[in-house]
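thread: overnight batch results

M.L. [08:02]
morning all. the overnight job finished for the chain we discussed friday. pasting input first so we're all looking at the same thing
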Amino acid sequence: QVQLVESGGGLVQAGDSLRLSCTGSGSTFTSYAMGWFRRAPGQEREFVAAISTAGTKTSHANSVKGRFTISRDNAKNTVYLQMSSLKPEDTAVYYCAARLAVTGAYYITETEYGTWGQGTQVTVSS
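M.L. [08:03]
and the structure it wrote out:
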């Protein structure tokens, strides 16, 4: 089973950009579809973005579409979340998640994922 470690979170101002990384180890990274989720204070964890095993298919939540982009570099066992035009409402703990998948599949609900990272805090000040 893959283990996941997120990095890249921090404190930024509204309008800034930030890139989150999630590196997998312990298993064949290319066999896993990946996703990013976030949990804001006092709220449920919500879907942000997902990507298929080869990176050919992606999905983004409406709230981040046009501002965030998910990508992956399988040679580095890493999935990224490039975030731009950040807003205070993007403040949350961001989690990456993985699940074994067939080529071309991606998943947008958290119950479909079996492996999670520890999360990285993103705080956007106004």
